[in-house]
Design a protein that fits this description.
The chain is of the alpha+beta class and 578 residues long. Helices cover 32% and strands 17% of the residues. The chain contains 15 helices and 23 strands. The longest helix has 24 residues.
Length: 578
C-alpha cells in the first residue's frame, strides 16, 4: 500500500490517504509569502545567473473567502528492494570489502576526482582498511552531482538527479551510511507531457499489487494516449528476442542505434517518437538516431525484471551536503583524507613507466602505493602520459567522449498549477526531463513560488550559445507545453531569476560500438587504476555505474595488495641504493 499524493490544479494543496502502518515522511505548511522579487548577485562556477528587475514588488494576497495557499508534501514509503538479486549481489560486494583481511601495512591510495566514482573508491578502500587520499580540483564535492548556493541561499545543480529502485549499489551505499531517509520516493509512475494536447499529461502507472514484469506490462497496456493497441503489439513482438535472448542478446545490440533497431524489429516509428525520444534523452542526453540500443535494453531489462526497478526517488536536498559529505565523513572517520582545490597538472612517471606521483598545480607532489583516476574520461585523456598513449588499453579511450548537457533552473513569481510531485518527461525537441523542485525536494520546498529544474538536451548545438538564448528557447518550449500558465513574453508567470549550468563533457556518449572500448578498472600499468561510469560495469553512464565502478576499483586494489606492497618495497630498496 502507498501514500497517494497529487497536486491539485485548483488550489495546489496536496491530498493524500494513509493506509496500514505508513508514516508521513515530510509535511510542510507555510502561509508566509515573500513580497519582493528575489535579489541575486554574481557567483562562481559554471552556473550563470541573472537578476530580473521588477518595477513593483510581487505581492501574493489571498482572495476574499479563499484560504491562503497551502501545500503539503508527502512522500511514498521506501519500496522493498533488499530481496532482489542485484541488491544482494551489491550488498555482498560491499560486505566482502568490509570483511577483507586487515592489511599489516595499509596502502596509501591517491585518487583523482571527488565525484561519485572517486568517493565510492575511497569509501570502500577505507572500509577495507587502507588509506585513500582523495583529490578534487574544484572547491565543491560531487563531480557531475555538484551543486552551488547562490546569494539568496538557493541551490542550483549540475543535473537533475533521479535515484531508481534499480540502482542496487547506490541503495546499498545509502543504507551503509545510514541515510536511507534522505531519499524522497515518489509514486510508481512515469509521466509524460503531451505536446499535441498542451497542458495535459499521459501516465504509465505501475500497480503495487502485481509483481514484475506484470506491473510494467500492465502500465503499458493501460496507456492508450501515447500508443495504440497495434503499436503495442508490434513493439511487444519486436522486444521478444531481447526478452528471450537475455544479456548476450542485449550486449550484441551495441552496434545498432535505437532507431535502427526499432526499424529492424518492425516497430513503428511512432513508438520511437512517442516514447523513446524522451527515454533516450533522459538516459544519455542524445536522440534515438545516435544512442546505442544496448543502453535502452539494459534499462528496460532492469525496469521489467525488478518490481520497483523503475520507481524513482529525489534526494531531499543538495547533493554535496546530503550525499557527498556523509561519504567524506565516513572516509575521514577511518583515517582517509579528502582535499579540495587540488588540481592535477601532470602524472609523473618512474623510469619503468609506472606512476611516481601526481603533480598538482600548486607544485606539490602526492605519492602513494597505488593511484586512481576517477575523473571524466575526457580529463584522463588530456593528462595521459605520452608513452602510455600507444598502449591499446588507452588507445581505445579515443572512442569514448563526454556528451554536452545543460541544466536550467528557473524561479517563477508564482506557484505553477500544472505540475506533479514527480519527474516529468517533457517530450520537447529541446528539453529532456524536468521537475518542479519546489514540490519534489524537501530542502527546495516553497509553497508560493515554483522552481523548475530542466535538462536541456541534446545540447551540442547550444552549449556555446548565450544563457539568455537558452532561457528564451526554454521559455518557448514551456509556453508551447503549458500555454495557460507560461507565455514567451512573461505576461503570465514571470521569471524572478535563473541559473544555467553548462557541462561541455558530461557522461560518456553511448553510441554504437563503444562498448568494447570501455576499460576495466585495473589498467596494464602496475599500480594505476581507473574508476568512472565509462569504465566496464553493467550500469553504463549513470550514478549507479559510477558507484559500482568505484567498488570494483577498490576490489581490484585489495586483490593486488601483495603485488603493490612488493612493488613499494622494491622502489624503497632502489632508492636506498642511490
Amino acid at each position: 500500500m502507498t501514500i497517494g499524493g497529487f497536486v491539485s490544479a485548483a488550489n495546489l494543496s496536496c491530498q493524500s490517504t494513509l493506509t496500514g502502518n505508513q508514516t508521513l515522511r515530510c509535511g510542510f505548511l507555510n502561509n508566509s509569502v515573500k513580497t519582493n522579487a528575489l535579489a541575486f548577485g554574481g557567483c562562481e562556477s559554471m552556473g550563470h545567473s541573472l537578476r530580473i528587475p521588477h518595477t513593483k514588488a510581487i505581492r501574493l494576497r489571498p482572495r476574499k473567502g479563499v484560504s491562503p495557499l497551502q501545500v503539503v508534501c508527502m512522500d511514498f514509503p521506501r519500496p522493498e528492494l533488499e530481496n532482489t538479486v542485484n541488491f544482494l549481489e551489491a550488498a555482498y560486494l560491499s560486505s566482502s570489502l568490509r570483511a577483507s583481511a586487515r592489511p599489516s601495512k595499509p596502502l596509501t591510495v591517491v585518487i583523482a576526482g571527488a565525484g561519485l566514482a572517486g568517493l565510492s573508491t575511497a569509501k570502500y578502500l577505507a572500509d577495507a582498511g587502507h588509506k585513500p587520499i582523495l583529490l578534487e580540483s574544484r572547491d565543491v564535492l560531487g563531480g557531475k552531482v555538484a551543486a552551488w548556493k547562490d546569494d539568496d541561499g538557493d541551490w542550483y545543480e549540475t543535473g537533475l538527479h533521479i535515484f531508481f529502485g534499480a540502482y542496487p549499489n547506490v541503495q546499498n551505499l545509502f543504507g551503509e551510511l545510514g541515510i536511507d531517509d534522505r531519499l524522497q520516493w515518489k509514486e510508481h509512475s512515469m509521466i509524460f507531457a503531451m505536446p499535441n494536447k498542451p497542458g495535459e499529461f499521459s501516465r504509465f502507472d505501475f500497480p503495487e499489487v502485481l509483481p514484475a514484469p506484470l506491473n510494467g506490462i500492465w502500465a503499458i497496456l493501460k496507456n492508450n494516449e501515447m500508443l495504440t493497441w497495434p503499436d503495442k503489439v508490434k513493439f511487444a513482438i519486436g522486444l521478444l528476442p531481447a526478452m528471450l535472448g537475455g544479456q548476450a542478446y542485449v550486449e550484441a545490440q551495441d552496434g545498432l542505434t535505437v532507431k535502427e533497431w526499432m526499424r529492424k524489429q518492425g516497430v513503428p516509428d511512432c513508438v520511437t517518437d512517442e516514447v523513446f525520444v524522451a527515454m533516450s534523452k533522459a538516459l544519455n542526453f542524445i536522440n534515438p538516431d545516435e544512442l546505442s540500443m544496448q543502453c535502452i535494453l539494459i534499462a528496460l531489462n532492469r525496469f521489467l525484471q525488478e518490481k520497483n526497478g523503475s520507481k524513482m526517488a529525489f534526494l531531499d536536498g543538495n547533493p554535496p551536503e546530503r550525499l557527498c559529505m556523509p561519504i567524506v565523513d565516513h572516509i575521514q572517520s577511518l583515517g582517509g583524507e579528502v582535499r579540495l582545490n587540488s588540481r592535477i597538472q601532470k602524472i609523473e612517471l618512474n623510469n619503468d613507466g609506472t606512476v611516481k606521483s601526481f603533480l598538482l598545480n600548486n607544485g606539490n607532489m602526492i605519492e602513494g602505493d597505488a593511484y586512481v583516476f576517477a575523473t571524466p574520461v575526457d580529463i584522463l585523456k588530456l593528462l595521459l602520459p605520452e608513452n602510455w598513449k600507444e598502449i591499446p588499453y588507452f588507445q581505445r579511450l579515443k572512442k569514448l567522449v563526454g556528451v554536452p548537457v545543460i541544466n536550467v533552473h528557473i524561479w517563477f513569481d508564482r506557484k505553477l498549477k500544472n505540475t506533479y510531485d514527480h519527474l516529468l518527461f517533457s517530450r520537447s525537441p529541446l528539453l529532456s526531463v524536468y521537475a518542479d523542485m519546489s514540490v519534489t525536494c524537501k530542502e527546495y520546498y516553497n509553497p508560493n513560488q515554483s522552481m523548475l529544474e530542466l535538462v536541456f538536451a541534446p545540447a551540442e548545438e547550444w552549449i556555446s550559445r548565450s544563457d539568455s538564448d537558452i532561457i528564451d528557447a526554454t521559455m518557448n518550449e514551456l509556453a508551447r507545453l503549458f500555454p495557460d500558465e507560461i507565455s514567451t513574453d512573461q505576461s503570465k508567470a514571470k521569471i524572478v531569476k535563473y541559473h544555467v549550468v553548462k557541462t561541455p563533457r558530461s557522461v560518456y556518449k553511448i553510441v554504437p560500438d563503444c562498448e568494447p572500448c570501455r576499460p576495466l578498472q585495473r589498467s596494464p600499468i602496475e599500480g594505476f587504476y581507473l574508476a568512472g561510469d565509462y569504465t566496464k560495469q553493467k550500469y553504463l553512464a549513470s550514478m549507479e555505474g559510477a558507484v559500482l565502478s568505484g567498488k570494483l576499483c577498490a576490489q581490484a586494489i585489495v586483490q593486488d595488495y601483495e603485488l603493490l606492497i612488493a612493488r613499494g618495497q622494491t622502489r624503497l630498496a632502489q632508492a636506498s641504493v642511490y
